[in-house]
Each structure stands twice: as C-alpha cells, then as structure tokens.
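User: Here's a protein and a ligand (flavin mononucleotide). What would the complex look like?
Assistant: Let me lay out the input and then the predicted complex.
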Amino acid sequence: MNLETNYLGLKLRNPVIVSSSGLTDSLDKIKAAAEYGAGAVVMKSIFEEQINYQAGILASGSDYPEAEDYISYYTQTHSLDNYLKLVESAKKSTDIPVIPSINCVTADNWINFAKNIESAGADALEINMFFLPLDKTVEPGVAEKLYLNMVEKLRTILTIPFAIKLGQRFTNLFYTIDQLYNRGANGVVLFNRFFEPDIDINSMNIIPASVFSKPDDKRNVLRYVAMASAINDRISISASTGVYSGDDVVKYLLAGADTEQICSVLYKEGHKYLKELLDFVESWMRSKNYDTVDKFRGLLNYKNFMDAGKYERAQFMKYFSGYD
Ligand SMILES: Cc1cc2nc3c(=O)[nH]c(=O)nc-3n(C[C@H](O)[C@H](O)[C@H](O)COP(=O)(O)O)c2cc1C
C-alpha cells in the first residue's frame, strides 16, 4: 500500500500528523511520533506574547494583571531559544517533516521571528490565529482582513510553506480560504480547538470545559472539509478534530483532506495508537482495492453535487421531518 501524501508541497509518507499540543513538545515525544509512523509532526505552539515579551514590547499596565503575570511566568519557563533548539534537534533525529507552530492574535511584531524558525530548519510553519471580535462597532469583514494582512506579510518573510489553522466561525469560510491562498498560504487546517468556558453552579465560577474533543465533534468538520476540498482544490487541507479511529481517518480522506491531525485520542491511547490507525487504513484500502491514497481521496466531497446549497437544504428538511 502506498500512503504517500503531498501536504503544503512536502512529501509525507502518510497523511496522519500529530497535532500541535503537548504531544510534540519534546524531542522524545517527536521521536516517538516518528517511530510509530506519523507522516509529520506539528510542534506545540509558541505564543505571540512570548515573542513580544522577549522583545520587551508587551504592553504593560493592563486592567488584567493576572494575565500579565501568567505570560511573564510562561515566558520564563518556555524560552524561544529552547524552541528553536527543539526544531533543530527534531530535524536531526527524525526523517519526517517538522512543522513548528505560532499562536497569534495580531499580524504585528511576532512575524519576524518566523524567519528564525525557518533558519532553524523547519520544513513548514503552522499559524494558529484567533481573536474574539468583542467590539460591537467593528464591521464584519474587518476580522478577515487581519488574517489576510498577516498572510501577506508572512509570505514576504518566509520561503518555506505555511498553513493557517482556522476557527469555524467565518461568514464565508470559502472566500477566506481562497483569499488566504491568493496571498500565499499553502494550506489551511480545519479547525482549531479553542478555549471553551463552562459554569460551575456550586462555586458559581467560570471554569474551563474539557480541552479534549469527542468523536462527534468531527461531524461539522467533515462537512467543511468536503466543501472546501471541492471549492478550492489548489490549497492543502488538513482536517483537525475528532479523529478517534481508523474509520475516522478514512472518512476525512474520502471527504477530501490531504492530511489529518490527531490529538485528543493520542492523549488517551499514547503515540503507539498511530500504528493502529495506519494499519486500519492499509487494511481498508486492501479491502477496497486501492493501492494509493490519491485514488480515493475526495471521492465523497461536494464535487459530486451540482448544487451543494440545494443538497444541504434538502438534507436539512429530511433530517428533521423523519421524527414526529
Ligand atoms: C492538551 C491540548 C493542547 C493543545 N495545544 C495546542 C497548541 O499549542 N497549538 C494548537 O494550534 N493547537 C493546540 N491544541 C489543539 C489540537 O492541536 C487540535 O487542533 C484539537 O485538539 C483538535 O484535534 P483532536 O480532536 O484530535 O483533539 C491542543 C489540544 C489539546 C487537547
């Protein structure tokens, strides 16, 4: 079986990537990912605030000193030099693509640091950009422009490919993906997992909801991967959310993903679970007589529907009419 995959112009031995998280924050963990068969790794993100803090340009005197204290503590315990060293040593010790990650909320000062990551030997970069538009006077479209400006700037700085990890909430996700591609992004990761709040009714406090996904979280992502891969077949698409089994890996490939990023299930099962996922994909391919992934990738994406809008509307009506 040939599971080789092209992602961001890079050749991967298979489409299964270990997601940006604590699963890729040390050399041992990155080596374990490679050993159990990962096609690539996305390193744990560094935060824009870390870069700004070290450059001495973090705004101080905010109304939220607790946040400043946390950033200061986090920066001191997670040095950027160590991050660059990890990129270098991961490249020396493994033969799979190593993709560092930056988490940001602006298109500002951190961008120059991306060049240091490239110089350390990264194969590509992933940018995880997210901010909550909370100002009711800001018009729709302003947020999208921030993403596009960031990509334009980054393209002038980097020669390596890069992907943008997006959230689900865009007025027109496909317009945004198209524009990101036109400005030089090589791929998109659909989707990021954000902090979600919950409320403890006993202590009457806001508490974090579970950081881990559930298998069902995949359903909406499957739809968007299937649409995005049909609407823009030039940009690389990496599916991220809710891969828990080999079936899930196959589903995202059928929907048109180039690669898939795996996180929560590996926290539960360990890196060795990668091999099980890959063995399943191979045995499924054998049972269907596919010898390469490219032969079935995207077979169930939205290219099959002349009018995807009408299809969605009909499905929606049938969905809720089946129950009295
Ligand atoms: C503990 C934990 C840490 C994570 N850290 C990061 C991170 O540093 N950067 C990032 O882009 N995503 C991060 N993520 C999000 C994952 O990369 C992934 O996109 C998300 O968990 C969805 O995939 P899953 O359903 O396989 O968990 C983290 C997720 C978890 C559970």
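Summary: The chain is about 40% helix and 15% strand.
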